[in-house]
Known about the structure:
This protein is α/β, with parallel strands linked by helices.
Amino acid sequence: MESPDTRPAKRLERTPRVFVTRHLMPSVESRMRELFDVSLNTEDQPLAREQLVAAMQEYDVLVPTVTDRIDAEMIAAAGRQLGLIANFGAGTEHIDLAAASARNILVTNTPGVFTDDTADLAMSGIIGVPRRIREGVELIRSGRWTGWTPTALLGTKLAGKVLGIVGMGRIGQAVAHRAHAFGLEIAYHNRKRLPEAVERMFKARWVEQLDDLMSEADILSLHCPAGPDTHHMIDARRIGLMKDGACLINTARGDLVDQEALIAALESGKLAGAGLDVYPDEPDVDARLIAHPNVMTLPHIGSATREGREDSGLKVIANIRMWADGHRPPDQVLSGLV
């Protein structure tokens, strides 16, 4: 298979025809109209597979998001003119990279722009679940609060507890930076150990085996990509290794966690609560998670800031322009990398 790095650059001798699958920030769409022959999804309705294939047969560039599954069969059906899949977002697990590479279709993403946004949201769960914030809000809203008492809604103090971070990339490091200010001890598991200088910067301790981190963490926060190696990496066995009363925070991908095992642990009291922004069957959320008093169920808003979504759109534009000019896009994804 030819590496994308070695392909000869070829300038597109016309205005790129660009198909965008979801409604983006108005400023981004306005700029796209100025630069490209663009088709926009202003109604923001998820597109059917047949609609995506039709676009891939007609346009030079496809701009999908995480809600669009671009598999090998769809890529094989793409027209010869399709040269770039410019993904809006950092994750590319919804795109078959090997199939795109085999067709000499470049794939780009938008890394880095959502790091702070996602880390901020993860912290809301790291703080909110141990302190039972959702239960408190519900108590007020239901009119059942009868006033302060010394033993009501007792949560868990953060300072001195162990925050286990699974995946110490950009977002994991940003979470560690924030969590240290709350007095949490940072332990992390990663495919590769970080340099000692980076560990000292974040006052983080590497745990080589994930099972060991599971048993140490008072709060476990997931920040790794989805893929065959991470599917259901948090399963019933590993949840069983966790401390009684521990909390799980997932702002990464729903498939990382065996949802049935998580629900069983929550209902039995093995886990005190969970903070979830992602689910395996989005947009469907299991009713048992919604019903649990100490599960923060959020609608996949980790990257939902005006600044982040605009910056991501501008990265998409930059990648398309570089590709159309015959240069390597700045955010090209290499086939086979997660």
